[in-house]
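Quick one: co-fold with zinc ion.
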Amino acid sequence: MAESIIAPALWCDSHAHLDSAEFQANASEVIARAAAAGVDKILCMGNDPESSRKAFALAQSAPHHLYPAAGLHPHEALKWGRDAESELRELWESDAVRCVGEIGLDYYYDFAPKKQQQEAFAAQLDTARNLKKPVSIHLREAFDDGFAILREVGVPQGGVLHCFQGGPDEAQIALALNLHLSFSGMVTFKNAVALKTAVPLVPADRYLVETDSPYLAPVPYRGKTNEPAYVVQTGAYVAMLRGIPTEQAARETRQNAIDLFKMD
Ligand SMILES: [Zn+2]
Ligand SMILES: [Zn+2]
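Sure, here it is.
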């Protein structure tokens, strides 16, 4: 006899920093809460070699739930050099590592000289192309330079503009560059007007959702430590903006992440 059990929607958090200090003491509870909320896949970013190794080790502890990425974040671009590259390469060459990330440019905080950021970004894009891996890209107040580098180096395996903060124009450029767009808790913020108008313009097979934990918790958790379980709130808001049922947004964004990052 068939039982009428309505399965909860399953989600993928396509960008989280579970290696960060905020989760040192409670990573296993955070991961368990994510699973309980239906978040059955999480892509764990790396910010530098050490953080990438931590993300890798964490992902090994929860196969098919956590997947590691490895990369040098633009904030850390001063660390770029032969040592950092060879340490990251050890990870990049592992089949377990599904993504080169996070990488990119950040001219808002400007923690490293622009030239150094550009060099690290272009070199890691090049590596991703050679290793046939997708990328997770951070561009903050750096769309022009970022798009110029992306046009030059290319992303043949695709990738995602994570925590997308642009409007319709930047969205169109990113889509034309073979990128997906990932929406974070920022879409729920009242002042994100241009961003909200971009959300419904992205094709159904090109958008993702993420938390960017521990940062950017969505409303109603704004200001608190973000965690992967809260991708559900962001996803529900994205669904509302797209005028589709929440379950559909869950299904589409999860499948898009699985396809892009080959999460088996
Ligand atoms: Zn970022
Ligand atoms: Zn991030």
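If it helps, Residues 11-261 form a domain with the TIM Barrel fold (CATH 3.20.20.140).
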